[in-house]
Amino acid sequence: MLEGLLVDLVPYGKRFLDQEHRWHNSEAWFWATAGEWVIVSRDAINRYRAEEAERRAERHNIPSVYFGIQTKDGKPLGDIAMNWVLPYHRLAMLGACISEPEYWGGGYGTDALLLILDYAFNWLDMHKIWLGTMDINERVKRQMIKVGFVLEARERSFHMVDGHGWVDGLLYGMLRDEWPGREAMINKLGLKART
Ligand SMILES: CC(C)(COP(=O)(O)OP(=O)(O)OC[C@H]1O[C@@H](n2cnc3c(N)ncnc32)[C@H](O)[C@@H]1OP(=O)(O)O)[C@@H](O)C(=O)NCCC(=O)NCCS
């Protein structure tokens, strides 16, 4: 368990899996999947989980590090993960979703991000962390800049976004040398525990 100020990162167990049907059919998933509005059945979610091992093998068992995000009093909020961890290159792709929209914009996602970055750089000795998003995702864009990621690439007309048409993709990256440490970032951002 990684303990933050507003959230903790914990194993993504049953309490989280039980929320997935609601989460995957909400606006959160539209943002997390970069623009898809789909209706997903419980069966489809269960099938996806069951087939995960096969997909992992197809991807040559590229590991991922997956956490549930929960409030300090234990309410499941979503997930944050390092997907596509490439140990030789010490490179990992981030993915995150606060799946309860009423918690957006309150610093919860950034608290989770600082925890996973600290874990990635200081515990796993990663060299670089990167993340892709769509150009209309203002919360992620703001979050990337305030935490010190560099905008490295614009993928032109990359996502077919329901209601928006073709939208550019953005790739952000942070190198280990650019990470000032969690305490420094907490101070810089003025992140505080809720009292
Ligand atoms: C992206 C996400 C993880 C960020 O977490 P969060 O808790 O909402 O982020 P924070 O509150 O720490 O920071 C968001 C920032 O965006 C700002 N923001 C919120 N809505 C905004 C808007 N419409 N336009 C511009 N900025 C906005 C907030 O004010 C905040 O900046 P501030 O700290 O300077 O005030 C979360 O919003 C989320 O999961 N969204 C849905 C799924 C998703 O988009 N996943 C990422 C896919 S790449």
Question: What percentage of the residues does DSSP assign to strands (E)?
Answer: 25-35%
Oligomer: single chain
Helix content: 25-40%
Quickly count the domains.
1
Mean pLDDT across the residues is 95
- Structural Rg: 16 Å
CATH architecture: 3-Layer(aba) Sandwich
Taking the alpha carbons of the first and last residues, their distance comes to 21 Å
Structural class: alpha+beta
CATH-defined fold name? Aminopeptidase
Number of helices: 8
Order of SSEs, N→C?
EEHHHHHEEEHEHEEH
Strand order of the largest sheet: 1-2-3-4-5-6-8-7
Task: Tally the beta strands.
Answer: 8
CATH class descriptor? Alpha Beta
Q: Ligands in the structure?
A: coenzyme A
- Overall body shape: globular
Strand-helix topology:
Blueprint: E1 2-3, E2 7-10, H1 14-17, H2 20-24, H3 27-32, H4 42-50, H5 52-58, E3 65-71, E4 76-86, E5 91-98, H6 108-123, E6 128-134, H7 138-147, E7 150-161, E8 165-175, H8 182-189
Parallel strand pairs: 5-6
Antiparallel strand pairs: 1-2, 2-3, 3-4, 4-5, 6-8, 7-8
This protein binds coenzyme A (COA).
Coenzyme A binds next to helix 3, strand 5, helix 6 and helix 7.
Describe the structure in your own words.
It is a single chain. This protein is α+β, with helices and mostly antiparallel strands and 195 residues long. It has a single domain (2-189), classed as Aminopeptidase (3-Layer(aba) Sandwich). Helices cover 33% and strands 32% of the residues. The protein has an eight-stranded mixed sheet with strand order 1-2-3-4-5-6-8-7. The chain is globular and about 45 Å long. The mean pLDDT is 95. The structure holds coenzyme A (COA). Residues 28, 31-32, 96-98, 104-110, 133, 137-140, 142-143, 146 line the site of coenzyme A.
